[in-house]
Amino acid sequence: MCQQVMKTMLDKIEREEKISLKRKLREETQVEKRQRTMANRLSTLLHRQKETLRKEILTRREHMEQGLKREIQVSVLQGL
User: Fold this and answer.
1) Can you list the pairs that 71-80 forms with residues at least 24 positions away whose Cβ atoms lie under 8 Å?
2) In the chain, which ranges are E strands?
3) How far apart are CA 41 and CA 34, in angstroms?
4) pLDDT per residue as tens digits for the range 5-26
5) What's the helix, strand, coil split of the chain in %, to 5?
6) Chain-centre distance for alpha carbon 44
7) Nearest-angstrom CA–CA distance, 11 and 4
């Protein structure tokens, strides 16, 4: 009788340990998933900002080149 009570108690303790271990693993997995999601969001945001800056730089460069061409044409025409 006493052995059966001890066995029941040990089984209960083992089940509780398994359940707590599963919970802990699940929580860790959720934390890792949140971290990966945040890293992906930041990476996407960085990529978008880089592309926006690249386009802005190209646009400004094009405007500067057009301005310089106009200035050169005006200078050439004035020199004639």
Assistant:
1) none
2) none
3) 10
4) 888 888 889 999 999 999 988 8
5) 100, 0, 0
6) 6
7) 10
pTM of the model: 0.57
Helix (H, G, I), strand (E, B) or coil at 55: helix
Residues composing the chain:
80
Contacts of 31 (CB under 8 A, 6+ apart): none
C-alpha torsion sign, points 7, 12, 16, 19: positive
Q: How far is CA 6 from CA 9, 13, 14, 15, 17, in A?
A: 5, 11, 12, 14, 16
Tokens of 44: 């996407």
CA distance 50 to 53: 5
